[in-house]
Every structure is written in structure tokens, then in C-alpha cells.
From TrEMBL, chain B:
This is Oxidoreductase FAD/NAD(P)-binding domain protein. Residues 33-125 form the 2Fe-2S ferredoxin-type domain. One of its GO terms (molecular function) is oxidoreductase activity. Keywords: FAD, Flavoprotein, Iron, Membrane, Transmembrane, Transmembrane helix, Transport. InterPro entries: 2Fe-2S_ferredoxin-like_sf (IPR036010), 2Fe-2S_ferredoxin-type (IPR001041), Beta-grasp_dom_sf (IPR012675), Cbr1-like_FAD-bd_dom (IPR008333), FAD-bd_FR_type (IPR017927), Flavoprot_Pyr_Nucl_cyt_Rdtase (IPR001709), FNR_nucleotide-bd (IPR039261), OxRdtase_FAD/NAD-bd (IPR001433). It comes from [Clostridium] ultunense Esp. It holds the Pfam family Fer2.
Length: 196, 366
């Protein structure tokens, strides 16, 4: 593993290794909640927030519990459980003590528990053997990249709302086609940085 | 063997700790204690905080109309929250108009109770209950209109004002994969509390009407809730009543007529009923009975598509034209209209032109 600056990983995660456009992770909420720009922005912020903290949490769990016990292969189940518990705990805390934050993104939190982009980032962190700082850079970047993708999609969907579409393409159909076109466009960024 | 033990213990301990933390959080952070809800500045309820307002009100047996069951997808469960609702949530915005936002209207299924609240709901909702009723009879009124008699369980009864409606639940059946509630006016006398009659027309493709017309059989049970609605008989005046209906809009008018008969109300009343052909007229015997029994009542049907072969001797044309001819002096008249929005809009216009005060025109659009 070449030592990459966390900042490089951060930018790569937004543009060249975008969660949606390169890995097609987190598609369900991407398609489901990309009708309006404000809503998708809220969801994007919530994803970024949860991604950052669950990745940090999972990094600590993985390197301090699973690795010493030689239980790396349990990471799937452990990561899933820790993400689910963390999201639920955060929801309770935010709802009680940060009403403004709750109104902005709290209602999206339950949606995120099952967002595969979040589990994906934790798993990539392990596969690519990132350090703690690299993991944080990767998590924040991935979150922002995901937000960028869903907001762009919401913008596109708002514009085509009054367009006549073939019946079979309405809703998810056209969304997937637009996603594909955007993904092609994002290939144009691939020369900037490359992480793997 | 050792690995199995280590993995099991690790995962169990890990999950156990998280479960413990979550339970602790649920008891402390998510525990809002008991909250007070004041409804219409009159009734006070102590409820558990943290729940949604809709769920808390249902626990107190106050039924706010809701078709989606609290998912925030129907927009029916609106209440006025005067104090203690917090800011409007993004999930509510699609259902609220600017005027409603100004009036502090909220979706009760989305608002959680986190502090004491002061709310306002229509007074008659205190009367609303859920019932499971049995279909006692289904009669064909016309080829596309059926009359249903729904019998309440032993010991249960309903009290409603003549003109009000109930919501009937159409369950999941072949060709329909969602439960929906649809509103139907009660056609039976308010004095009969152990059953209600509904008059339901067939709408091609309609979920509830297809259920009633094609699937429902005598002896089946159906879920209803109600009564709702502020379209009902007004006893403030004893001036002449103009009753206007088309099609199944006859239902609430019938209830009003039964009420007048039961209470022996001595008011002059004229019932203008619009239909297309003689085949679309129904319950003519009952209406004849009313003409005999009531103080001063006349049923005046008008047909818009009567052909020569029908030998129709009554009025012809649409109801608004008929009213235009019939109403001579406007003073002291009250009008009750039930039917399609198009019919009601044109009739209200005619009545206002004739000089009937807008506050004396009551209507139920469906």
C-alpha cells in the first residue's frame, strides 16, 4: 500500500471513486429520495455525518478488538451491528438534545441504517489497509461524494418532471439511465487522482 | 473448539453491550415522561411523551381521520397545534398549504409529543369510533347503484347527525393491493342506532366501489369509522328548505328527511333530484311515503336525457335550470346540496343569483 495523503483520498472519494458513480453503492435511498433538492441535501448530510462516525467507530473496533483476537472474518456481522446500533443511538440523542439538527436530518437517520454505502466504506477501509486518518478522509470524502451525486440527481429529476416519458421509464427507470450517464461523465475526472 | 468459543463470546459480548446501551438510552434519552395535551381548551389528557400525537390520541379513543396509518402518505390527519409542536417537519410540508401553515395546522402522525401541547380538533371527532359491522343486505337501486345495510354488533351503537358520513375500509382483494378508506354518507334515520344504510354507486376502476359492487356479500364483515362531517341538518331556523341532489347524493338528504319525519318537524321542504333517464331514479316509494308523512314535502325529479319512449311527464333538464324556474322569492330559504363538485358549483351560483344568503347554503361535494 502506497502511503497516500488523507487529503488525496478525500478528493478521490468525491470525484474518481465516487460511491454512487464508481461503485453503485447506496442506490436504494439514492433512487428513492432524489425527488427534491432540499430533501436530498438533508439525506446527503445525514449520510456524511453517519459515515464519518461509523467509519471511525469501526476502525477502532476492527483494530482493537477483531485484529488482536484474529477474528477479522467477523467484520461483516460486527460492522453491520455497530452501524445499526450507532444510528439508532444517534437518532435518540439528536431527537432529544438537538431539535434543530433533528428537523434538518434526523428524520433521514432510519433510512441510513440500511444504506450499503456506509457498510461499503467500512469494508473498503479494511481491504485497502487505510490508517485512521486515511479512513476519516475516505469516509468524509465518500459522504460528500454521495451528497454531490444525489443532489445532482435531484436537480436533474426536478428538470425532467414535466417531460413526457415512455410509461415504462417513469421513476426509477429514467433515474437509472441518468445515473449511468452521470457515471460516464464522472469518468472524465479519473485522471486527477487514483486510489485503489 | 477454542475459535468457536472466542467468536461466539466476542459477538455475544459485543451485541450484548450494544443492546444494553440502547436499552439504557431508550429508558433515559428517549423517555420524555408524561405530557399533558389540552384539546380545544376544554379536555385534558395525560399521555406518554415520545409517541406521535396521532398514536397518543388513538390511545385516548379520539379518532383523527387517517387513511395511511401514520406513514405520512395520505395527509388526512391534520390537527391545529397551538402550542408545543416544534417546527414543521419536511415530511409534513407536501401536505400543507400556505394558509394551513399560517393556521398552525400539522400532520398529527408526524408530530411527536415532546412537551405539553395545546391542540384544536373539530368537536365532532370526540364522537368518532371504529366499528366492525356485518353486511345485512345489499339491494340494487339502479344497475349501477346499490344500497347497503350495515348492522352493528350487539351492544354497539352509533349516534350521528343527519347528513354526516362514515369511512368504509376497502380491504386488499384480487386486483387491489392496498387498504383504502372511502367516505360515504349515511342514508338511514339517525334514530336507528343499530344499523346504517349506505348508497354506493359503481365507479369503473374505483377501489372501494369495485369492492362493494363486485366482491362484498351478505354476511361479510367490514370495518368502518365515523361519523364525520359538518354537512348536517340545521335546526336554527324553520324556513323553507331546498334539498338538491344527483345520483348517490340522495343519501344524506334521505337521512335528513327521516330525521324530519321522526322529529315531526313542520318545515316546508322541496327535494330537487337530478338524473339522466327514468332508470336512474330510485327509492321512489320511500319518497312518496315522505310526501304523505311530512308536513309539506314534495319530491321533484328532473331528467336530463329523457327520450320520447320513456313517456316521462315530469321535469326535464338539469337541476340548476329547474331551480332557476322554481325559486321565485329567495327570502328565508335554506339550501342543502349533495353531489358532484360540478353540480354543486353551478347550483350554488344559481341560488346566490336568486338572493339566497351564502351562509344558508350547505353542501357536501364528493
Amino acid at each position: 500500500m502506497i502511503e497516500l495523503n488523507p487529503l488525496v483520498i478525500f478528493f478521490a472519494a468525491i470525484f474518481t471513486n465516487n460511491m454512487i458513480f464508481s461503485y453503485f453503492l447506496g442506490m436504494c435511498s439514492f433512487i428513492g429520495v432524489s425527488n427534491e433538492i432540499p430533501t436530498s441535501l438533508g439525506l446527503g448530510q445525514a449520510v456524511t455525518f453517519v459515515l464519518t462516525f461509523t467509519t471511525m467507530l469501526n476502525y477502532i473496533i476492527y483494530h482493537n478488538i477483531l485484529v488482536p483476537l484474529n477474528l477479522e472474518y467477523l467484520r461483516f456481522i460486527v460492522f453491520i451491528i455497530s452501524i445499526a446500533a450507532f444510528v439508532q443511538l444517534i437518532e435518540m440523542v439528536v431527537e432529544r438534545y438537538f431539535p434543530n439538527l433533528y428537523y434538518a436530518l434526523g428524520i433521514f437517520l432510519p433510512l441510513i441504517t440500511v444504506n450499503c454505502a456506509i457498510l461499503g466504506v467500512s469494508l473498503f477501509m479494511v481491504i485497502r489497509e487505510y490508517t485512521f486518518l486515511q479512513s476519516v478522509g475516505f469516509a468524509v470524502g465518500s459522504g460528500i461524494g454521495w451528497t454531490l451525486a444525489i443532489v445532482a440527481m435531484a436537480g436533474a429529476r426536478q428538470r425532467i418532471r414535466r417531460t413526457k416519458l415512455p410509461k415504462g421509464l417513469e421513476g426509477p427507470g429514467i433515474t437509472l439511465i441518468i445515473t449511468g450517464l452521470m457515471a460516464l461523465a464522472f469518468i472524465g475526472f479519473s485522471g486527477i487522482v487514483q486510489i485503489q | 473448539m477454542e475459535t468457536i468459543l472466542i467468536t461466539t463470546v466476542t459477538v455475544t459480548a459485543f451485541t450484548g453491550i450494544l443492546a444494553f446501551l440502547l436499552t439504557l438510552a431508550d429508558r433515559t434519552i428517549a423517555n420524555y415522561g408524561e405530557m399533558k395535551i389540552v384539546i380545544n381548551d376544554d379536555k385534558e389528557y395525560i399521555v406518554d411523551g415520545g409517541n406521535t400525537l396521532l398514536a397518543a390520541l388513538i390511545d385516548e379513543k379520539i379518532f383523527i381521520p387517517s387513511a395511511c396509518g401514520g406513514k405520512g402518505t395520505c395527509g388526512y390527519c391534520k390537527v391545529k397545534i397551538l402550542e408545543g409542536g416544534g417546527p414543521v417537519l419536511p415530511t409534513e410540508l407536501p401536505w400543507l398549504t400556505e394558509e394551513e401553515l399560517k393556521d398552525k395546522v400539522r400532520l398529527s402522525c408526524q408530530c411527536k409529543i415532546k412537551e405539553d401541547m395545546r391542540i384544536e380538533i373539530p368537536e365532532e371527532l370526540f364522537n368518532v369510533r371504529e366499528y366492525q359491522v356485518t353486511v345485512e343486505s345489499i339491494e340494487d337501486m339502479t344497475p349501477v347503484i346499490k344500497k347497503l345495510r350495515l348492522r352493528f354488533k350487539e351492544g354497539e351503537e352509533i349516534s350521528f347527525k343527519p347528513g354526516q358520513y362514515i369511512q368504509l375500509k376497502a380491504p386488499i382483494y384480487e386486483g387491489n393491493d392496498e387498504e383504502v378508506y372511502r367516505a360515504y354518507s349515511i342514508a338511514s334515520p339517525p334514530s336507528e342506532k343499530s344499523y346504517i344504510d349506505l348508497i354506493i354507486g359503481y365507479v369503473p376502476g374505483g377501489i372501494a366501489t369495485t369492492y362493494v359492487h363486485k366482491h362484498l356479500k351478505v354476511g361479510d364483515t367490514v370495518d368502518i369509522n365515523g361519523p364525520y362531517g359538518d354537512f348536517c341538518y340545521q335546526d336554527k331556523y324553520d324556513n323553507e328548505m331546498i334539498l338538491v341532489a344527483v345520483g348517490t347524493g340522495m343519501a344524506p338528504i334521505l337521512s335528513i328527511l327521516y330525521h324530519m319525519k321522526d322529529q315531526d318537524i313542520k318545515r316546508k321542504a322541496r327535494f330537487y333530484f337530478g338524473a339522466r333517464t327514468p332508470e336512474d331514479l330510485f327509492l321512489l316509494d320511500e319518497l312518496k311515503e315522505f310526501e304523505k308523512a311530512l308536513y309539506d314535502f314534495e319530491f321533484i325529479p328532473t331528467l336530463s336525457r329523457a327520450l320520447d319512449e320513456h313517456n316521462w311527464t315530469g321535469a326535464r333538464g338539469r337541476v340548476n335550470v329547474l331551480l332557476d324556474e322554481h325559486i321565485k322569492n329567495p327570502d328565508d330559504k335554506e339550501a342543502y346540496l349533495c353531489g358532484s363538485p360540478a353540480m354543486i358549483d353551478t347550483v350554488v351560483e344559481v341560488l346566490k343569483e336568486k338572493g339566497i344568503l351564502e351562509e344558508h347554503i350547505y353542501y357536501d361535494k364528493f
